[in-house]
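Re: Re: token formats

Sure, here are both.
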Amino acid sequence: MPSMPSAEEPLTPLQMGINGLKLLFAMSPLIALFYIVYTGFEDEEVEQLKRKKKGDFEMDGHAE
């Protein structure tokens, strides 16, 4: 079953759906990458709080 018909034959709805799914699967890595980059950043206040917490620890229970 060829994915693209010749110039005389119009695209059927099934062929259009298959081609749409192929396009979606081909673009899915880019969509996932953009989603990760878009949602990967936090607010500046949250970042500052995490950086402040990073050095605020105690080593209770360690006998060194």
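Second one below.
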Amino acid sequence: FPDVMPVFAIKVISGLPTGFFMVMFAVISMNSFDLGASEAGYVMSYFGVLQMVVQGVLIGWLTSRYTDGTLLLWGVMLTSATGIGMALMTNVFHFCVIALPLVFALSTLGIITDSILTKAVPPSDTGTMLGICASVQPMIRTVGPTIGGFLYQNYGLSAFGYL
């Protein structure tokens, strides 16, 4: 299926930097943001609420008004812009400001790439494609601590934005 590989590559590549950051968030929150366990929990709760609102309200509204290709393009551009913001952030307030466009971009990319990929294969292969799409985040969480730890230790917090 010729249309599958470029979109799948976008899905994997766009998820790597933030996936590594989120896997490393416990360490980053203590070392870079000087947060305790409860404060880090509040930040993660904020991130979770943002995801619920964006995925529950905003994505459905956008998919009814724009094409998958347009939303994919905007998701990639917004992910790149938030990467610059992540490279420049120095405290937890900056992260909370960056979180809104970051969650929007990642949610859009995740949902839209799944939609494009399932439409690109015959109905008999839809389940297989959904399984492959669902395996991306666990794969990132598997290699994330090793790669994220290396990046954080050797290049600092800004490495996740430059990636």
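Helices lie at 4-23, 25-31, 37-63, 68-88, 92-119, 126-134, 136-155, 159-162. The chain has eight helices and no strands.
- S.
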